[in-house]
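# nightly structure sweep
# worker-07 picked up a monomer target from the shared queue
# config: single-sequence mode, recycle default, output format = structure tokens
# input follows
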Amino acid sequence: MTVWKTSLRNLLAHRGRMALSAVAVVLSVAFVSGTLVFTDTMNATFDKLFAATSGDVTVSPKETGEDEEVSATGRPASLPAGALAKAERAEGARSAEGVVVSMSVTVVNAGNENMGSTTGAPTIASNWTGVDRRSMEVTAGHPPRGPTEVMVDADTADKHGLKIGDELSTLAVTGDHTARISGIAAFEVTNPGAAVVYFDTATAQRVLLGDRGAYTGVVVTAEEGVTHEQLKENVVAAVGSDAYTYRTQAETADDSRQDVAEFMDVMKYAMLGFAGIALLVGVFLIVNTFSMLVAQRTREIGLMRAIGSSRRQVNRSVLTEALLLGVVGSVVGLGAGVGLAVGLMELMGAMGMNLSTSELTVKATTPVIGVALGVVVTVLAAWLPARRAGRVSPMAALRDAGTPADGRAGAVRAVLGVLLTAVGAAALYVASRAEEASAGAGMLALGVVLTLVGFIVVGPVLAGVVVRALSLVVLRLFGPVGRLAERNALRNPRRTGATGAALMIGLALVASLSVVGSSMVASATEELDKSVGADFIVGSDTGQPITPQAAEKVRTADGLADVTEYKMLDIAITTPDGTTLKGETLNAATPSYAEVLRVETTQGELADAYAKDSMSVFAGFAKKHGLRTGDTLRVDFAQGRTAELTVRAVTSDEAVIDKGAMYASIATAERYVAEKDMPLNALMFGSAVDGEEDAAYAALKKALEPYPQYTVRDQADYKQTLQDQVGQLLNMVYGLLALAIVVAVLGVVNTLALSVVERTREIGLMRAIGLSRRQLRRMIRLESVVIALFGALLGLGLGMGWGATAQQLLALEGMKVLEIPWATIGWVFAGSALVGLVAALVPAFRAGRMNVLAAIATE
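# output follows
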């Protein structure tokens, strides 16, 4: 009980300094628990949505290999009306209803504004059915009753200011269909962010499928007392076709859940990864805090030992303080985590996915994981300082000799750090020389871990060297005050090394990702300049195929000398050795594509692959299956017949754009795939008449104005798009890494604050012999700046090494240009100096307010 009282007293006595350490625990636990609460809430919400929108038994066409959301043909796979009639007669079926749903549409208002989501969620067009009535409520007007009426969801209506009577046009493969809004329906469950429009069944069949007698699915409702599993068996027996897929409500919900789970898992583990980084940085803050507190309580510890306290009791006292700190920080972190989850839900709402806080889900395991994580990490971080405290001898402590220095341990640490760094650097070198990216990835990961740990371990040694070098450039300009700041930073290299290491981790990740991102953009830009011969690229950012109407607009646009069409077909290939490979893709294009994309070949000429019944394969495929030009492959088109195609060219694996693609002409594909099953153009390319590039660009944009789902880009636009996409991804990552950097800044603040307390008497003496308040504050600010620059220098150097190695691996996949973003690196380094200044504001202000006589009298 005495240990608990002593620990609690010490914790409260240093509550201000402990609070900064607690912030590291709070932030890390908040991120972990917030992530778990958010993902659990999302899962529970989607479970409710899928349960509400799934029929008792659903009959749908078997998957044909094409994208489930957007059909390559513009028409979703369908089944005939006869399937509905048979399902209605199934034993145990109370009712059956035909469903028509398509996500291969675009909906625009009278001003030609796209009503779809801007966050990537699809636009869904459907007939209004009984299943929809279970999840939506008509809040205004009435459901559509004929071809001139359409109903829209309330969220889309609110977002775009739509009201009853407004005109909407649905752009589909069958043509453009215009109708007026007859009703508005609100989701009674979570809106997944999609824009939804409803037609009557006959209109949906005509507009979405071009077939009045077809459905995309049949929903069967069971009679009372009939289980879903029994009804499924009866429906299978009644419909009797293996061309369809039969699912119960639970199975449909499970399939939908798996699609969402992939996205959720990526988000979940990414956020937990950043939480782990913040926690690792927080460890340095906690270690430093307890190390300095132990050093400041040396005499107190000596007195405890002198009156009979054992090493174990002293050790236990420090660990108990850490335990209390961990518990308090974790509990606060749990509350903050729930707040973070609510904030994420609000963010998703702003993006169009409306999540209700009434669905907030906190599983019993979440607080257990959060508290356990915070407590365990805090206690482990305090273990080394506690061990040092236990080793203080009573006589040394009473003489105020401080905690024992172990020169031998320091030497061992230095040797171990250098060894780890050297082995890590060797692993990075091996990774950069790997012949296959998959083989080098493991060495890269090993190298990153070892060099990071090595730099952390050898940090005190590096602090002595790097701080002196930085002082020559930065601190010596400030005369004696600068020299004092240098000596303070060097006084305890272990402390400086640990403080700088916390900042080093976050900046190393920032630097490495910046190098990789810049190299990706530079490589893609170089490849575009080298390989792409077209002036313009037309396509959809959401993956929508180009409808025949829009394609005709491109073909007839003024100023174009040539238009190239590009389709993607699902195929299975059987090689001469009898191996059958399913799930392959054949890129069918017009012959001019050989000029649009200049791909090097290792055998034959790519232009020959566009001849009748010909194709190309890529070098890796050819090598694996022993293929050469002249060999014949059996190609089974997923929605067509079987062809015997001759290999006329083998493309190089060095390509970046369309890497690993196999080509044939559209004319060859049309010989084996019926017109109604032929995929629409995925992309179209235009080449302008010489000297009329600007006029052709303007004409092409004007021609496609009625189709806002498609974008016209010249090569400059395309390069800017690549840069923006990479930039958005990096900004998101930098935002998450900012959490680790914030914790590192708190570490600098804490170190300086405790250092000021530790040097109270020294500061009083310096003031007594003439050091002004201004000079004192400047000394502390300069000390902070040099520590921050030390961490930044190590982090940026380490990160650029990681990034350059990663680029060498990615060069095997075609990313051949190494681009160091010197401007970004420079701004980060300068920003680190600013971080140091900001971190020193409070400690410097408190030091300047010290009473000189009281400070001198301090023991």
